[in-house]
Amino acid sequence: MLEVLAIVAAYLLGSLPFSFLVARAFGVADVRRVGSGNVGATNVLRSAGKAAGALALLLDAAKGAAASGLALWLAPEPATVPALAAIAAVLGHMYPVWLRFQGGKGVATGLGAFAPLAPQAALGATALFLVTLVGTRYVSLSSIVAAVSLAVLAWVFGAPIPVAGLATLTAALVVLRHRSNLRRLWAGSERRAGASGR
Hints:
Blueprint: H1 2-15, H2 18-25, H3 41-48, H4 50-74, H5 80-94, H6 107-114, H7 119-136, H8 139-156, H9 161-177, H10 179-187
Helix pairs in contact: 1-4, 1-5, 2-3, 2-4, 3-4, 4-5, 4-6, 5-6, 5-9, 6-8, 7-8, 8-9
């Protein structure tokens, strides 16, 4: 029973639409109607400013960490339950019940969710995100690199098989959610961080 409760709670925590709420607090009535239409920190940053984007990013990561952390507290063994809670939080962010299942792409929430379960992998993935962002100024490419490297590093650092396996599934979901960005990257039309315009 506690296991089911932990996973349901993780989805509901992941569903908390912090990016939507932060954007609204900073004067954007509905972040789904501006910019890329994505309910995530990058679109909040572009539509509501740097402070709003940073706050949305931190809150999205925090809710992921809270979800898997709660699962670790309620049902620490086996590792399957916390790992399922982590991906449940990501799915909650991507498909939030509060916004008619129209959510974000899950990068910050995923990194936050797997940080308590595979801290070395999460730290390495965050570092690679920053390196890629500085080198290319593509947030989308940096996000994909972070998600994929989280999965790879989880295996490399010997995370429990359920954790590494579900980190891999999370990476696949993140890449799938970025498919339009991948098309634009291929075409050379993807917007760089700091670029003007929509």
